Amino acid sequence: MDSSESKKEKKERKRAAKELKEAKRRKVDTSVEKGSSENEENENDELEIDLSARVPLSKKQQRLLKKGKLNLDKLDKKHPAPKPENEEEGDKEKKKSEFGVWIGNLSFDTTKEDLVRYIVSKTEDSEPKVTEDDMSRVNIPKKDGKIKGFAYIDLPSSAHVDAVVALSEGHLNGRRMLIKSASSFEGRPEKPLSKNPPSRILFVGNLSFDTTSELLEEHFRHCGEIIKIRMATFEDSGKCKGFAFIDFKDEAGPTTALKSKLAKKLINRPLRLEYGEDRSKRTPKRFEGKENRDESYGEVAPAAPEPRAAAPAVRRSTAVRTRTRHEPVASRMKSSVALATAQRASAAIVPSAGKKIKFD
User: Fold this and answer.
1) Residues 102, 150: contact at Cβ < 8 Å?
2) What is the pLDDT of residues 180-204, one digit of tens each?
3) Label partner for 316 (CA 20 to 30 A): which of 134, 203, 274, 326?
4) By the 8 A CB rule, do 197 and 225 touch?
5) pLDDT for 174-186, tens place per residue?
6) How far apart are the first and last CA of the chain?
7) Burial 164-185 (b: 16+ CB within 10 A, else e)
């Protein structure tokens, strides 16, 4: 009997244990389902943030506020509330104009007042005249409290833009400004290669005294076909005077030399390169009735001999002609000639011609 009762108790314990396990599983499943449903509800709920609200105070600021040592008005001015994006975009669209200019190479101490004053004063005589009211926006970007060196100015029309662009290369606060249209992205206009008009002759200055024509020919060979090199030299030593003229076949040679960086130096000296004067293109001087030039070759044609008038008959007179002779005027002899022709004195010791006197 005891054995049968013990078996029954064991079976009951096992059943009770199974029931407890199943109950625990059911509780876990229900809790998971509740948690998932709550998470789904939280995901569906959007978090709303008021951007126009004041910045929350830190713990230190809250303590100062309780003690009355913090002013909220000053704090709002120091940390203003950000504006919504839609409002900022609307303001930009209103402020930005279709016409405007970009001004570069400004000094770091340039202000808006300086720019406005300069443009108004320089365009008084232009048409149209640019006034302070015409400049709807003057934007000078800054970084670390200093301007970046350029500015944007909005204008009402393209005519005003042309009037302001005409002031380019002007000086403001010691700097040469570059002014161009805000829609143009071109750089500063290139400087002319030479002051003289283009020609097939190249002037080379600042040459070393040791320069030779062979060295010049080798240095400028890559620029084009060289016809002749005319180098000024000293009569006594035959060395270069410091400049020369190089005749090329066409104008492409000097232009290539002016643009080439390899032709800028010779014997460690910077060269001065310019277009030379082409004498073959000179306009010939025309003399009335004396010289006629051939148009095909540009040479002087011999003038036709003019008929000479008959010389009047000279009557021979029987009177004896007296010839007046002009005697040469005695000129003063130069000091160098006088010293050269003077008789050389003797350098020997002169014997004494004195008498010997004895005193008692």
Assistant:
1) yes
2) 888 776 665 667 778 888 999 999 9
3) 326
4) no
5) 899 989 888 776 6
6) 197
7) beebbeeebeeeebbbbbbeee
